[in-house]
């Protein structure tokens, strides 16, 4: 489907990047195409690392999770990390039913077994570099879980406008959308202050759009209409994304320094979320489940008033 099929709206843009993060808080994968589902991109944040109590673990506690690469293949997801043999997990294979906590939500999940648990524990705990300090208490034993697709985890209806939108192990919404203009403005400010530019991977979006006139215009958009081969998919931008310290983690080295967060704090405090520093917009799927999103697809949107 081409751009002519889209409604005549305020903004014309295009998808310039699609990013999948199969394991929450591990490195993502840039893809050319992705299937849209009701909970986001297919298999995005479908797996999650948890501690012995079933609580989720992220780069906030273990920055070296950034060094674990993930790649989806036809029938498995492959995890790789420095000094480790590759871990292959069949996408259709799980072990015991379990429960897991992601933020305030306790959800149904499946444990991925002892081999995956040992692999993660070896890399993130046993081989944790001493110069990074001790592993936080309670994280000596890690496990990997898979979201139970039969479980419905709802996004906060305060932000969805009462719409019953679902997600899996994301922080709270099906998709994260960021514009290239927003990253360019951050990098302009970083370089003016003598710091190195950073990549989009620091912000872990699913959809990157190009063609907006101004940085952070995505904050002001209502719905994205995307022309796909199956028709028009509609994504509603519902909540600015508050930023934790994860963008301060260098994805190539897992070292942490404060420049990114400090710079965002100088101009991105957002009164919509009580002054939290935001970058990008959380989105929910209004229509288009099972559509294929691809890099280069045209996007139309209207401003929210």
Characterise this structure:
It contains four helices and 21 strands. The protein is mostly beta strands and 305 residues long. The protein has a single domain (3-303), classed as M1 Pyruvate Kinase, Domain 3. A seven-stranded mixed beta barrel has the order 1-15-14-19-17-16-21. It has a four-stranded antiparallel beta sheet with strand order 5-11-10-9. The chain has a three-stranded antiparallel beta sheet with strand order 4-3-20, with no helix packed on it. Helix 3 links the parallel strand 14 (175-179) and strand 15 (207-210). The longest helix is centred in the middle third of the chain and has 13 residues, at 114-126. The chain is globular, with a radius of gyration of 19 Å. The two termini are 29 Å apart. The mean pLDDT is 96.
């Amino acid at each position: 489907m081409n751009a002519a099929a889209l409604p005549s709206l305020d903004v014309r843009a295009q998808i310039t990047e699609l990013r999948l993060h199969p394991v929450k808080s591990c490195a993502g994968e840039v893809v050319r195409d992705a299937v849209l589902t009701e909970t986001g991109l297919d298999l995005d944040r479908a797996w999650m690392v948890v501690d012995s109590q079933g609580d989720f673990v992220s780069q906030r506690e273990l920055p070296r999770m950034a060094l674990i690469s993930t790649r989806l293949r036809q029938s498995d997801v492959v995890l790789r990390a420095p000094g480790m043999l590759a871990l292959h997990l069949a996408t259709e294979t799980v072990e015991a039913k379990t429960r897991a906590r992601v933020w305030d939500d306790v959800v149904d999940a499946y444990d991925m077994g002892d081999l995956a648990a040992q692999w993660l524990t070896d890399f993130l705990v046993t081989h944790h570099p001493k110069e990074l300090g001790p592993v936080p208490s309670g994280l000596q034993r890690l496990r990997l879980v898979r979201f139970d697709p039969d479980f419905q985890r709802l996004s906060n209806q305060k932000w969805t406008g009462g719409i019953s939108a679902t997600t899996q192990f994301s922080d709270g919404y099906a998709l994260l959308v960021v514009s290239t203009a927003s990253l360019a403005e951050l990098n302009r400010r970083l370089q003016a202050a003598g710091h190195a530019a950073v990549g989009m991977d620091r912000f872990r979006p699913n959809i990157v759009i190009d063609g907006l006139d101004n940085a952070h215009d995505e904050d002001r958009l209502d719905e994205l209409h995307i022309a796909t081969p199956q028709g028009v998919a509609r994504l509603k931008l519902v909540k600015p994304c508050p930023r934790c310290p994860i963008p301060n983690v260098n994805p190539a080295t897992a070292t942490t320094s404060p420049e990114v967060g400090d710079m965002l704090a100088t101009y991105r405090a957002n009164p919509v979320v009580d002054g939290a520093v935001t970058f990008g917009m959380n989105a929910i799927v209004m229509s288009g489940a099972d559509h294929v999103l691809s890099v280069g697809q045209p996007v139309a949107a209207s401003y929210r008033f």
